[in-house]
Amino acid sequence: MNVLGLTGGPHTLLDDYRTVPHLDGYWHDAAAALIVDGVLRSAHEEERHTRVKNTSVFPANSVAACMSDAGIAADGLDAVAVYFTEAYWRRYLNLVRHYVPDFAFLDPRALIRQRLREVLGDEVCAPLHFVDHHLCHGYSALAYSGYQDCLVLTLDGAGDEEAGRLVRVRDRRQETLHTVSLDNSLGGLYLHVTKHLGYGQFDEYKVMGLASYGDPNQLADDLGMVRLKEAGRFEVEWSFVDKLESVLPARRRHEPITQDHADLAACVQRALEGAVLHLLQWHCAEDGSDRLCFAGGVAHNSTLNGVIEASGLVRSLFVPPGAHDGGCSIGAATATYLRAHPRSRSTRMASAYLGTAIPKATADELVPKSLHRFLSLVDLTTLDNPVASLAARLAAGEVIGVARGRAEFGPRALGNRSILADPRQAAMRDRINSMIKSREGYRPFAPVVAAEDASRYFVLNGAVEDYSFMSSRVTVRNEFRHALAAVTHVDGSARLQTVSRDQNPWLWRLLHAFKRHSGLPILLNTSLNVSAEPIVDSVEDALLCLLTSGLSGLVLGELAVTPTRQFAVEDFEWVPMPGVRLLAQWAPAQAKAAWALEKTGPRRFTSAISGEVASLLLQHLEPMPFDDGVAAEIEQLWRTRYVRPVM
Questions:
Q1: Per-residue model confidence as pLDDT tens digits over 15-29
Q2: 353-563 belongs to which homologous superfamily?
Q3: Where is each Carbamoyltransferase domain found (predicted)?
């Protein structure tokens, strides 16, 4: 049985529905997943293909990629599973029709089939199933945990009129023990504070990192964000919003981070942890369950997961690599498959490498002709022993990108689309944060360690059977904190990834090769991208990231790629990135048009541009000499991913 699972909305990157209020709150993290005869064969996130972070569009590229991975045509599908209920979809389409009268679709089934036909070039006749949002989250964890009897907790901002659910699974039967109403959304609470701190939706992980620098006691008594009640229940005290503005005014984006901001981050982090532990403490004791599956956006809070593990409330915890809404594509497909095959057993997910493949190949085979103009900027070498060479370069202080094998599914880079570096010096963390990732200096980097050596360097929690998905924080042992300065957070913690020989043989060998140089089977691991773009997916993405990020080099498949000269904007033609619109508004005071570029998607950003740059983008001119001002402006727009070079 072949089941295609979908997340994301009904629109395309070309649709413009800015007149619809709150449109972007309905969808995000578009993705597709394919189950073939009970096996999860492929899963792609649409943002990796469109290069629009957290994109909300219909996952057309991801559908095409999944079908191609498995060699399946439209008539090979037995079912299509879509996250959210059909009622939710109908409400949304009616909202769009209200503000956009010529919008053609009110029937979600017809619209989804139309989108699939556009992608696959043929009619999809397979039955279409709509799956409840939190059921999708739940199955994305339960079916891949290896647990037969357990508790399943899902928590996020909102989905199908709920913000969370706790379910008992026993003897293949499921019983809902608790639901979290929208008024008590812990994801909503965390997002509100995230915005108050000057960040936006999907920046909650920044607040989690900032929390380690703060003292929650400085604000907790004044704010009282969550009230704990009997029987594991809790209530979000939204009255804290009024208090918050008087205690600490909202920070504007790009204003300095102060200690008060860190204290507020610590306050909301502790409120989240307290509510979740309160809920689990009651139900674990009442139910007797000691295994927990955890999914939903809140489950990517690795600090919270570490607190759950250390609490002793559960003996075993599983968080899938795609706990966010993108993972609902896996959950929807899985729930639909299991409905038809109810005797199937849960098995532990062995790998998150489910996406686009970059194979072992020669330069001519791997780099398409459309990218050959980049070859004048780099040196490509086929190495006899790439692992040994890379280990030596890392030990010498180089920062190297890796793009090889199948891409990871989920927000964590796990070695196939990673930036790797020496973990021993704190200066390395600062260098990558400022020069390469262009992100806040307080944010930590993760260590990746050979699984068999992990307990020597880190205090592992017994509730986690393995740390291969980088979903939990652990404590770095005191005697190694100085030696692991680049990956040890200010509170002595680390978001750990372990790698076994079976999970990723290439990375495991690299760790042991690095150990021969440094004495440590550990590397700094962060995602291969700059802050303004999603994780690298393709050969093209990897080369562009190398040329504009300050990396020392790149492993591309089995090739070593080294920049030979500086990337110059004058060498290329430039166009807006996918999902970026060129806007013009008449400015009476200047008696001319004021130009800007606007990023669409779940979050909208706008950057004012000069008339000269607007003219270049409008006319799509051949490469030409730019004056210094225009060149600098184009370069900044590229680094922030408003424009891209024409291939």
A1: 666 666 666 668 899
A2: Carbamoyltransferase, C-terminal domain (3.90.870.20)
A3: 25-333
